[in-house]
Amino acid sequence: MWGGRFASGPDAIMEEINASIDVDRHLYRQDIAASKAHAAMLAQQGIITADDAGTIVHGLDTILSEIERGAFDFKRALEDIHMNVEARLAELIGPAAGRLHTARSRNDQVATDFRLWVRDTIDQLDAALAGFQRALAEKALDHAGTVMPGLTHLQTAQPVTFGHHLLAYVEMAARDRGRFADARRRLNECPLGAAALAGTSFPLDRDMTARALGFDRPAANSLDAVSDRDFVLETLAAATLAAVHLSRLAEEIVIWTSPLTGLVRLSDRFTTGSSIMPQKRNPDAAELVRARTGRIAGALSALVMVMKGLPLAYQKDMQEDKEGAMDALAALSLSIAAMTGMVGDMVPDAARMKKAAGAGYATATDLADWLVRTLQMPFRNAHHVTGQIVAEAARQNLPLHRLPLAAMQAVEPKITDDVFAVLAVERSVKSRTSFGGTAPANVRAQARKWLKRLEKGR
Ligand code: ARG
Fold this sequence. Notes:
The chain is mainly α. It contains 19 helices and six strands. A two-stranded antiparallel ribbon has the order 1-2. It has a two-stranded parallel ribbon with strand order 3-4. A hairpin with a 2-residue loop joins β1 (147-152) and β2. α14 crosses α15 (379-395). The chain is elongated and about 100 Å long. Arginine binds at residues 20, 24, 80, 106-107, 110, 314, 316, 318-319. Arginine (ARG) is lined by residues 20, 24, 80, 106-107, 110, 314, 316, 318-319.
């Protein structure tokens, strides 16, 4: 393809380090679409004949079907997808194939192909994240009133509902989708026509190719068009955050399904056994989601390292953008699917959750709030009084709601029988009606709001 000034072929090691076909073969669909758009534009502009363009497009369609049938012979000696396709086109249609590369370079070609590929992948991830949100919101609606311990420092803090907890992840996934949408908006400019780096002397219609490929506009600076990989970095950054969120939920599932807490059960569908310990039911899928986050964050940091020292314009280093990104985005896609499956599969043990929610004096804040509201005590004093009552309950080895009124009155004589109403965990969650709070009525409304929104595809 470029052998004019070369007398002999490359060393085997040169070929080995140079070839990207094992990775960029996945861009075949985008590569062929971009070539078809380019050929049609060249013909419209009178740069090649309509006959040649027709032959080229027909040949490209043949290649597409060969690849999809598994009948295409990818050659490492031809380096990459662009040259593999073009060489096969020459075999199929003869000399007209040589006209396709007019006013084009592999530099603007690969930038275009990979943008298209990342854009398609973002669309798939968005749909998958919406499905994940739906599974969470449905489970949240089922468990809007299921009380569980809310933790800070992994210590019992205040009772919350399981539904409320799950909806927290719906919010995170919404931000993830927003970040992918932002990345998609910025990436949607077409590099095609920037050629190697400087543009071209041929009278291109770059708006036409941009439109044909679904881009919003052609990229405005040819140097930037061929050397920008922000779209990969931004997408990997969004993917990293999404993976971090999935990993946190995975970690919670590991904790919840451990017999040490026993708060949630996963079925046979999302657990595995042990080859030696017959009693085991391991949450391997959750653990692997947690672990794959490392690969995704790793791909981001690897590409940041690749890009940080590169002068304009295209450098071969940039060929390294694809393998990590493809691996990371595939890992994210599988992780979303696994988490969606686990969310649908998991069954909370409501009785255990309720018991755990009441342990650890989780309603102590409710007692303090009662003192503020009923006795007009300043919150700081109420906090101190409650602390003394909790200490007394601990001395007597009793939960708060079992501590005799007399013992409370020994600390604060004005406390009355009414206080017991706020010490039950259900009462506690029911009272948290502030916007965004854990009250079952709030959770039900939020879950319904999300389900309606998701139905509309947002
Ligand atoms: N395989 C190359 C890549 O992925 C395509 C661009 C090659 N350009 C070049 N000037 N050698 O980056």
